[in-house]
Specification:
4 helices, mainly alpha, Monooxygenase, elongated
Length: 97
């Protein structure tokens, strides 16, 4: 690992972790009103491109970080679309019954 390779790992953990926090927030509050659908569409496409780039260069940290981020960002995107179309998801209370 180069002298600053650790910095890339820290950056990957921070950016990927931020999407985990967003998914948890949405699951808890069921509110996606303030999320930009167009931003998430472009972002998911961009992360997919980064993942493909990492695959083409056999860059494991890039593949792992962007693979996880893609799943998390796509989850937010799906929840946003479902909320906009009025598709009800199972609430925590209903799932405990």
């Amino acid at each position: 690992m180069t002298d600053f390779a650790w910095l890339g790992s820290v950056a990957a953990c921070c950016t990927t972790g931020s999407f985990a926090l967003q998914v948890l927030h949405i699951l808890k509050n069921r509110d996606t009103k303030a999320i930009s659908l167009s931003m998430y569409l472009v972002f998911v496409f961009g992360v997919l491109c980064w993942l493909l780039y990492g695959l083409s260069n056999n860059d494991m940290p890039l593949m792992i970080a962007n693979g996880i981020t893609l799943v998390l960002a796509a989850t937010v995107l799906v929840m946003k679309v479902m909320n906009e179309r009025g598709i009800k998801t199972v609430s925590k209370k209903a799932s405990l019954r």
